[in-house]
Inverse folding.
């Protein structure tokens, strides 16, 4: 059975399945090095310097699932935050183990702040 035209020039479903499996395995091997870069000590010095310009927000342990799924996180889950929060400000967000997760935008809902992903690094 044939398959749609593709960048790999594959013409059969069997070939396509093998190529997809190979690509998946290669991507899986690359996951661990990327996870290790989340810790600020593992981040290259140039990136550390760039991150110093952003306010830091740390998130409580119980909200890790929300954090890594890219959900918005309410201010009540912040364990560390800048003293003066401003709406639409971008902050560097870390999980409870001090791993850098990404840059998040601060938003305001009535009297409470929340963050939502701007650029996730995981």
């Amino acid at each position: 059975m044939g398959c749609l035209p593709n960048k790999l020039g594959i013409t059969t479903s069997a070939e396509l399945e093998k190529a997809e499996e190979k690509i998946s395995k290669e991507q899986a091997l690359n996951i661990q090095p990327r996870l290790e870069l989340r810790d600020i000590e593992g981040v290259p010095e140039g990136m550390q310097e760039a991150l110093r310009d952003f306010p830091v927000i740390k998130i409580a342990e119980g909200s890790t699932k929300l954090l890594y799924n890219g959900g918005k996180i309410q201010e009540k889950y912040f364990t560390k935050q800048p003293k003066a929060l401003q709406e639409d400000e971008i902050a560097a967000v870390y999980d409870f183990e001090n791993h850098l997760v990404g840059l998040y935008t601060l938003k305001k809902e009535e009297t409470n702040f929340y963050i939502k992903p701007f650029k996730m690094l995981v």
User: Anything to note?
Assistant: The helical segments are 13-36, 45-51, 64-68. Strands lie at 56-59, 73-74, 78-80, 90-94, 100-109, 112-120.
